[in-house]
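Notes to self after the call with IL:
- keep both proteins in one doc
- input above output, always
- annotate only the second one for now

Protein 1:
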Amino acid sequence: MRTPNGSDTVEILAFGVQADERPLIERAFAPHHDIRCVDVFLTEDTAPIAAGHEAISTSVNASLDAGVLRILAAGGTRMIAQRSTGFNNIDLEVAERLGLTVARVSSYSPYSVAEFAWTLAMAVNRRIVRAGNRTRDFDFRLDGLMGRDLRGRTVGVLGTGKIGEAFTRIGHGFGMRLLGWDVAENPACVELGMEYVDKERLLAESDLVSLHVPLLPATRHLIDAAALRAMKDDAILVNSSRGGLVDTEALVAELRKGRFTGVGLDVYEAEAGLFFLDKSLHAVEDDTLARLVTFPNVVVTSHQAYYTEDAVTQIVDTTLHNVLDYLAGRRSENVLVPAAPVS
């Protein structure tokens, strides 16, 4: 294979590789190109590691701002393959000016995230974490562990794309009333009985609210103080999409008032530099997160909703094909910034 720079092969550098991911990545790339996996995340401090690598792969928590992109470009990087659907961490305008090709994973198993969102909902509804902690101490009381049946209650789904649809199908299986909010109706959700309403009505009537919209300037803090006040006092809120969708400080303020049956968060708006890392031996510097995890009705997980063997395999395979497409001069729907013309 001849690459755009005239070479026959390249070594791809993959940043932020988890231990479970490494064998999947190495096995996928082995027949095609060398792959070097490192567990450090891409930041301005670690970007120089990429020097000499024409193509790199990054994780969702990588920092790809203007400063990092300039370091990558100066070191010879020409292609960035992000192993995620979201790309709000990448300055695409700067990447284009620097002549960098940027690609993402347009889609992967929607069931991984949808099923995990329901896992969070059920965990806070049935007090699973508290119950598990008690039984480890041989405390088998049921005090404080009472949950609610979901059948017949109302679930509000903000964002009804592929993941939102998969989430809705599970809610339909529970026998719940379905409310939806999106820029366009999903016919599959309508067929399941979903009623599309405005956001205010959805928040006011839902017993469970789950977020499945992308993080864009228009959706940042979609769940702000006003939205939280509009929700039922005994509602459940689940966010398995992007942390920036929720105003965390406003959420903490409402939780301090004793509101909400439960909150399940797989994402956090200031998760970069925290999630995917072991911080157990360090002082907690994020006061908001420190306060959030103290509430007994809150479960916070470390951006793991996508983390199934099925989904990660699809992500890795798509990432491989994004790199191969770049090296062959092809362009797919996954490309966010196209390759600069080869002189």
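Protein 2 (the one to annotate):
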Amino acid sequence: MKLLRYGPKGQEKPGCLDHQGNLRDLSGVVADFGGDTVSLDSLAQLSALDPRTLPLVAQPVRIGAPMSHIPNFYCIGLNYAAHAAETGAEKPKEPLVFSKATSSLAGPEDTIIIPRGATRTDWEVELGIVIGKPALYVDEADALDYVAGYCAVNDVSERDFQKNRGGQWIKGKSAPGFGKIGPWLVTKDEVPDPQALRLQLSVNGENRQDSTTADMIFTVAQIVSYMSHFMELVPGDVIATGTPSGVGAGMSPQRFLQPGDIVALEVEGLGQQKADVIAAV
């Protein structure tokens, strides 16, 4: 299934795509998506529905983030070999885990707002994991059983706040709109191998990132298992699994987002994003 939320910002309704790619209304079945409503049990109930019996939604329509809220927004840093190399960092021996504020959540076409005082706002296309049931002390061999699905993520980052302002990376990762996910939550049955997905990102039509999840240092299964030994993952948690090479901070000379730029990205099978860049008022 490809699940999504559509409608004006703050008034989104849950929906899904049928087999012909038509948008269908799920608001008569589920109030919204987020937390337990994207658990494996909830998704199993939705999978029993025939999308053709659901109301058809006329398009075009705004597509919002596929979940109204997420309990936790985790990220993995330096998880692509080529990206670690372009930053001059050694490959991590264990997954480098940090968080984004959940208030950064945004939809695939919502604007990217450069924060006040920011000078080095960067892009990061990523594969996102959505957790489907509580995960604690999970073996790697069983880890994918805890995944509800996947989504495309743009882990927008302000490098100056991240690297030069002390403390944790979360300060450079959490401005409003910096957690762009969607357009869809794609259930894991439609992603047979999460380590074989192409990721692409362009700025103003110029290709900046083009890689595959095969370059990940730590796989989806390894990440879920590893994190579950430090915290309990819960339904609706999102884990952004790292970005490939081609970020602005890795270019020579470095290049960062400016007002008026257009950022487009795609993760194979998980849909596309396209967003204008503006300055904070």
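Annotation: The helical segments are 40-47, 81-87, 159-164, 220-228. The chain has a mean pLDDT of 96.
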